[in-house]
Amino acid sequence: MDNQHGLCLIVYSLVQWMHYMRSVLYFLVLCLASATAVAQPPKTAEEIKAIDERVAFWRTTCLGDWDAASHMTRAQWRTTCERVAAERRQFLLQDPASFTIGKSRQR
Fold first, then answer.
1. Is the dihedral of CA 95, 91, 101, 103 positive or negative?
2. Exposure check for the chain: N or C terminus, fewer CB within 10 A?
C-alpha cells in the first residue's frame, strides 16, 4: 500500500508541476504580447491619413454592395458597413504590420 501511495504522490507532484509550468508559459506569452503592443511607435499624420482614406474606400465599396435581395434593409446594411469600417480603422491604427503587408490599391 505504501508503494501505491508513494506513486500517487509522485504523479500528483508531476501534474502540479505541469500546471505550474503551463501557467508560467501563459504568463510569458502575455508579457511578450503586451510588450510588442506597447513598443509600437505612434502613427504619423501621413499614416493616419492613409488609413482614413483606405477605410473611406472600404466604407464606400461596402455601401455600394447593398442589394435589394439582401437579408438586410439598406439602413441595417449601412449600420454594418459603418461598424466594420470603424473596427478596421481601429485595427489598422493599433497594428502597423497589417497596413504595410501587400501592395495598397490605387484609387
1. negative
2. N
Domain count, the chain: 2
Looking at the structure, do residues 54 and 15 belong to the same domain, yes or no?
A: no
For residues 98 and 77, state if they share a domain: yes
Q: Which residues of 33-58 are buried (b: 16+ CB within 10 A; e: fewer)?
A: eeeeeeeeeebeeebeeebeebbeee
In 3D space, the residue among 58, 53, 41, 19 whose CA is nearest the CA of residue 94 turns out to be: 41
- Taking alpha carbons only, the member of 105, 92, 103, 106 closest to residue 47 is 92
Q: Say if residues 89 and 51 touch (Cβ distance below 8 Å).
A: yes
Q: What digits encode the pLDDT tens for the residues 60-82? A: 999 999 998 889 999 999 999 99
Domain residue limits at 78: 42-107
- Those residues of the chain that have pLDDT short of 70 are 1-2, 19, 24-25, 31, 33-40, 95-107
